[in-house]
Amino acid sequence: MPKLPVTEDPDARSGLTIQGEKPENCTFGAHGETGRARVVETHVSILFFVGDRVYKLRKPVAFDFLDFREREARREDCQREVALNSRLAPDAYLGVADIQVGGVPVDHMVVMQRMPDERRLARMARDGADLDREVRSVAKTLADFHSKAARSSEISSVATREALKANWQANFAETEPFVGAILDGQVEADIHRFVDQWLKGREQLLGDRIATGRVCDGHGDLQAEDIFCLDDGIRILDCIEFSDRLRYGDVIADVAFLAMDLERLGRPELAARLLADYQEFSGDRFPDSLVHHYSASRAYVRAKVACLRSRQGAPEAADEAVKLQALALSHLRQARVNLVLVGGLPGSGKSTLAAGLGASNRWPVLRSDDIRWEMGRTADDESPPGYLMARYSPTHTAEVYDKLLQRAGYLLERGESVILDASWIDLHRRDEARRVADRTSSNLVEVCCEVHADEAVARIERRLSQHADVSEATPEVRAAMEQSMDIWPSATPIDTTGATPEQSLARALDALPE
């Protein structure tokens, strides 16, 4: 009958006794009371819930990311868990207990204050509770935590493109034995492909994140199951302690993990709330593609862990792994960065459509007409120009498109999808856009608006009479442009004749990547 004196916790110095050969059969005696413990088992630990305490015992297991086979390694890990988790839940971690036989330590446990299960964020989310206030508190807690967390060149090194690629490859190697047996082979191949595409073009984005201090010693495993919303504040438990490199990362890696978990629990609105509130409290603006990439990474790691649990005999873990693998792929699809060309002749509705696409996806829209006006006017610009004249001369137009693509490249490199509103009648200009997309590893989406000539002329004349837009194109200019427009077979045609803006937008949305 081993005893566990807890020197760090005066209330537990009377000791605790354990009886039973297997965890599920254990009975506990603590503070003069005896009873059966509730036991929860993970792939690396066994947790005993008894009274107002939780006792966490490491398994003597080894994986690529940890090795707990030696008792001393388990003791050191227990001590690190208490020290690191005191950052976010100092009153929850009471100390480390020695399991002794005949006065000789044979193992060790982390001793914790038991949190009320009904205040667990995951449970409240599953129950459909209104959690806007609680999620806002979590966001503020995380923003404060990240602002004070350690930073260094060593910590920053884990967030480079090369480091992220190495992490993905390590996880792929660990899940390889389960592909086909548990994980879907085609889904796995798509995940590999999308990861490679995203990483190829994001070096500038990741470099900017490091340069602005967005990489720190974080939590590393932020799950709703480990967050408790108490009356006196938020408690966040169970950060990664066995590997510094797995705990280090972009602050968004932490936030995205929790957002992904809330989505997995069927509460995507809470995920969106968390991300918005975190940006508010932290002052950190990050592109959606970065959030989706880290969400995919976290979902995939959890799929790997579920595979490992399945191999250890957990019957429900295989189905969980499949769902998490699919969730990872979903986020990787959403992480793709897009360069969208919206073109067409004057009066075709391209600017209205581009604005609608931008609003629907929260993507910036760059207009050639705006850039043309930014570049200034000359003395011969006072009257509306004809085709290939003044501000619309070939030289001036080339400068407009060069600046348009330059700005697009800047945004794409930083993970922002962007919509370019221009006529795109010249094949050469479209080829330049394709090269920008290739250089930034972005998807090129091409949409060409079409409309009956009579309706286009009516739109142009109405716009000019009302001075409703910076575009100066006349019906005569449109006719001339139509004669010189190169065919555009790679574009999805959107016929706006007689269509409302909403109808045209719905057709264009179908042309975007899944």
Provide the descriptors you would attach to this structure in a database record.
five-stranded parallel beta sheet; Aminoglycoside 3'-phosphotransferase, Chain: A, domain 2; 19 strands; 514 residues; alpha+beta
Mean pLDDT: 89
Q: How far do the termini sit from each other?
A: 60 Å
Overall strand count: 19
Radius of gyration: 29 Å
Describe the global form.
elongated
What is the assigned CATH homologous superfamily of the largest domain? Aminoglycoside phosphotransferase (APH), C-terminal lobe
**Parts with pLDDT < 50 across at least 5 consecutive residues:** 1-27, 30-34
What characterizes the major β-sheet? 5 strands, antiparallel
Which band does the percent of strand residues land in? Answer: 15-25%
Assign the CATH class of the largest domain. Alpha Beta
Q: What is the number of helices?
A: 19
Name the CATH architecture of the largest domain: Alpha-Beta Complex
How many separate structural domains? 3
Helix content: 40-55%
- What class do helices, strands and sheet pairing give? alpha+beta
Strand order within the widest beta sheet: 4-5-6-10-9
**CATH topology call of the largest domain:** Aminoglycoside 3'-phosphotransferase, Chain: A, domain 2
Q: What does this protein look like?
A:
Mean pLDDT is 89; it is low at 1-27 and 30-34. The longest helix has 24 residues, at 288-311. This protein folds into 3 domains: 10-113, no CATH class; 117-335, Aminoglycoside 3'-phosphotransferase, Chain: A, domain 2, CATH 3.90.1200; 338-511, 3-Layer(aba) Sandwich (Rossmann fold), CATH 3.40.50. With 514 residues, the protein is of the alpha+beta class. The chain has helices spanning 71-85, 121-126, 132-148, 153-156, 161-175, 185-200, 203-211, 244-247, 251-264, 268-282, 288-311, 317-335, 350-361, 368-374, 394-413, 427-439, 453-466, 475-484, 501-511; strands at 16-19, 27-30, 33-36, 38-41, 45-50, 53-58, 62-63, 66-67, 93-101, 104-113, 215-217, 227-230, 233-236, 248-250, 338-344, 365-367, 418-421, 443-450, 492-495. The protein has a 5-stranded antiparallel beta sheet, with helices on one face. It has a 5-stranded parallel beta sheet with strand order 16-17-15-18-19, with helices on both faces. Strands 1-2-3 form a 3-stranded antiparallel beta sheet, with no helix packed on it. Helices cover 48% and strands 18% of the residues. It is built from 19 helices and 19 strands.
